[in-house]
Amino acid sequence: MVDMIPEIIAIAVALLAVLTEWVHARRVRRLQRLAFGPSGRAAYWTWAVPWIRVAAIAIASWGFASLLWVVEARVHNTGEVSESDIKHLVLVVDVSPSMGLVDAGVDGKLTRRQRASDVVESLFNRIPMGQFRITFIAVYTDAKPLLEDSSDHEVVRHMMEKMPMWHAFKAGKTKLIDGIELAAKMAKGWNPGSAYVLMLTDGDSVPSAGMPRMPASVADFVIVGVGDATNGKFLDGHQSRQDVNSLRQIANRLHGHYHNGNQKQLTSQVVSLFSESDNKDSIDKWTRREWALAAILVGTSLFALLPILLHYFGTGFVGGTKYQKEQAF
Fold first, then answer.
1. Distances from the Cα of 80 to the Cαs of 75, 76, 85, 141, 172, in angstroms?
2. Nearest CA-CA partner of 226 in 198, 252, 200
3. Mean pLDDT of 96-120
4. Which of 2, 9, 149, 160 can bridge 133 by disulfide, Cβ–Cβ 3.0-4.6 Å?
């Protein structure tokens, strides 16, 4: 029954407003020639003013009553995030020895690992990290989970910049597919659309079959390439450079996105992928509180604007001395 109080109040206010508009119209009718000149007519659009005023008062009343009797006060606590709002960022980072080669960055003086760290740092600064829990997967000859669902972003920075993680693996060829498979496995139990996978690497060969499928929890997959894609560096008797074709192929097969991050930070379009779900169907997430605030804003704005419009555009008649002089001529 309490939920119906705002509607009852709005209807009562609307009926009272209709009565007052009727009384006001009778008074205006007696003075219409004085107010509007010999024709006794206001501007044509003013016929809608009483109805707009009634609607504005009723809408605003409903909004105020909803906030007063129905909507519970919202307490903002920046230290806690509700379970339904938590998102997961899975970092799949290539830690092979080739990531230590110096050919990355705008001037080519950064190691590929440092450039990958810069890309991650830029992302952290551009998304609401308070909502994200980070999972860190290191990839070389196989994949190892080093961090799971952590909110400590400093740990991630430390691992990206200062830990030579390839020592924890056997020497051999890089297997990015192992990292993708582990990311899919770890994300399987999370809420649908709540996870984002970001892979940072300088490239790898792509098998013709066996690409893992991302679970429903993964909203987007982004692979960022680091290292010079044109002029490579020699490592263990072969030339190592960013393999753009293979990285783009991995992104396409996973229905994700590829970005060459060797010199440029993630674009705004790519960054928006990590918070895209916040903007989808946002009108569906409105509660009674948002509708009440919108009703108050619309109702009070209309009610305050009408007198100004009536003053300047309600009639073309100008009375007083000016009108008398015009009549004399």
1. 11, 9, 10, 38, 43
2. 200
3. 89
4. 149
Measure the CA angle with vertex 103, ends 206 and 162; round to 5°: 90
Structure tokens belonging to residue 300: 């009070």
pLDDT at residue 137 greater than cutoff 90: yes
Q: 286 in helix, strand or coil?
A: coil
Question: Which residues neighbour 261 within 8 Å (Cβ) at sequence distance 6 or greater?
Answer: 115, 116, 119, 200, 224, 225, 226
CB 262 within 8 Å of CB 227: yes
The full DSSP string for 165-185 is GGGGS-SS---HHHHHHHHHH
In 3-state terms, what secondary structure has residue 195?
A: strand
Helix 49-65 / helix 288-313 crossing angle, nearest 10 deg: 150
CA–CA gap between residue 127 and residue 222 (Å, rounded): 15
This prediction's pTM: 0.62
Q: Are 91 and 156 in contact (CB under 8 A)?
A: yes
Pairing of strands 218-225, 195-201: parallel
Q: Please tell me the predicted confidence (pLDDT) of residue 325.
A: 46
Q: Using CA atoms in the order 91, 95, 96, 99, what is the torsion angle rounded to 10 degrees?
A: 100
| Token pair listed for 29 | 């009718």
Given a cut of 60, whether residue 268 has pLDDT beyond it is yes
pLDDT for residue 322: 52
pLDDT at 170: 87
